[in-house]
Structures are given as C-alpha cells and as structure tokens.
Design a protein that fits this description.
Structural class: alpha+beta
Strand order of the largest sheet: 2-1-5-4-3-8-9
GO molecular function: thioredoxin peroxidase activity
Radius of gyration: 17 Å
Catalytic activity: a hydroperoxide + [thioredoxin]-dithiol = an alcohol + [thioredoxin]-disulfide + H2O
Oligomer: single chain
Number of strands: 9
Mean pLDDT: 96
CATH topology: Glutaredoxin
Shape: globular
Family: Belongs to the peroxiredoxin family. BCP/PrxQ subfamily.
Strand content: 15-25%
Distance between the termini: 19 Å
Helix content: 25-40%
Low-confidence stretches: none
Keywords: Antioxidant, Disulfide bond, Oxidoreductase, Peroxidase, Redox-active center
Number of helices: 9
InterPro entries: AhpC/TSA (IPR000866), Peroxiredoxin_BCP/PrxQ (IPR050924), Thioredoxin-like_sf (IPR036249), Thioredoxin_domain (IPR013766)
C-alpha cells in the first residue's frame, strides 16, 4: 500500500483560515459575517432530510464539464460520499474540499468515491476544481432541487450578500438564478444498495464542517 499523508484536521485549518481572514477583511465585514453565522446556527437545528437506513433519492446532475452524472450509476461502482456545499466563493467550502482531496485516495481504497454538490453553475464548479486541484466529481444543482431532498435550504440574507459586494464579490454571479438560496452543508455516505449509512451536518453555522477523519473512520467500519 502506498504511503499516506497525515489526515488533515478541519478545526486546525479553520483556526488558520480565520486568522488569515481577520487580517485580510475589514472589521465591519467580519462582524456582519459573524452575526450571520450565529443567526444561522440558531435557525437551523433540524437540518437533515434523511436518516441512516433511508434510500437515497436518485439524481441526475451536470458536472463541471457538462457531463450528466447519475447517482444510481455511480453506486454501481461502489459507495458514494456525497457532500453539499455553498459555493466556490466560500472560504470554508474551499478548505473543506481541499482537505477531502487530501484523503481522496483513502476514500477510494475503502471503496468509495467522493461527489460534491452545490447550486452554483458548471463554470463556477470548474473554477473550483481547477483552483483547488480537485480530482472528484463536482456537480451543479440549480435551484437546490436535489439538496432539498437531503439537507435544509435557506435564503442567504441581504446583509452578508451586501458585505460581499462591498468586498468585490458578486454573490449572484455564481448561480443561475437570483434566489440567493444555499444548502446547509452536510455529508452523506451512500452504500451500493442506495441506502444511507451515514448522515452528518455540523449545525447551521457554515464555518463548521465534517472532519475528514470522521468520514474515513466511518468508511473503514465496513
């Protein structure tokens, strides 16, 4: 077996990221994002739409280069680790997916492939893949039609969207509509028979994400 790098810690990465953001962003913007994350944590207590043992809803979505990907076809090859994230503009999503890339070989050794889904356009998914050098499928879910079957969906508040605009980030340009709707980040493991064996969301505060080690440990159980 090939050598493996140490499993990254999301919490350690988060501390470093937040330190960098505190140096890069104006205090007013940081306060708005903090307020938003705290409000979302309070609003979203019952997040997941599926439980362990449920049959995962099939879906057909486009990947970053416009190919159609169907969950049932992926499951013929093995387990699927399904990740819902917000978009390539989100530094926490980038951190999460880069760390999952670091343990992708271990997921594959354990018979699983990784699939990440967001409502952003295929062009933005491609930008995300290239920027973070991702070797797994990144799918576009317009209007969060698939996400709604797995996790909670909410409208991103106007204050953080305006704060992003003040920083030069056009939130709506990442999506095919102007609904401002986003999924609450969540991770699912789906077995070959289509049944969900693992469900995890870390709360409404989007800064918190499922640790790579938790996914690897769960895959190693079977």
């Amino acid at each position: 077996m090939s050598l493996r790098t140490e499993t990254p810690s999301y919490q350690d990465g988060l501390k470093e990221l937040q330190g960098n953001l505190s140096n890069m962003l104006p205090g007013e913007a940081l306060a708005i994002f903090e307020e938003d994350a705290t409000a979302l944590e309070a609003q979203h207590q019952d997040i997941l739409k599926l439980s362990k043992g449920d049959l995962a809803p099939n879906f057909i979505l486009n990947n970053a280069v416009g190919e159609t990907i169907q969950l049932n076809n992926l499951l013929q090859e093995g387990k699927v680790v399904l990740v819902f994230y917000r978009g390539s503009w989100c530094p926490y999503c980038n951190l999460q997916l880069k760390q999952y890339q670091q343990v992708l070989d271990r997921m594959e050794d354990l018979g699983a492939q990784l699939v990440a889904v967001s409502p952003q356009t295929p062009d933005e998914s491609l930008n995300l893949k290239e920027k973070n050098e991702l070797d797994f499928q990144v799918l576009s879910d317009p209007a969060n039609l698939v996400a709604r079957k797995y996790t909670s969906v909410f409208r991103n508040a106007d204050k953080p969207v305006k704060a992003m605009a003040d920083l030069g980030i056009d939130f709506n340009s990442y999506y095919s509509d102007d609904s401002q709707e986003l999924p609450v980040p969540a991770v699912f493991i789906i077995e070959k028979d289509g049944k969900v064996s693992f469900t995890r969301a870390t709360g409404g505060d989007y800064r918190n994400r499922v640790e790579p080690s938790e996914i690897i440990d769960e895959l190693a159980k079977s």
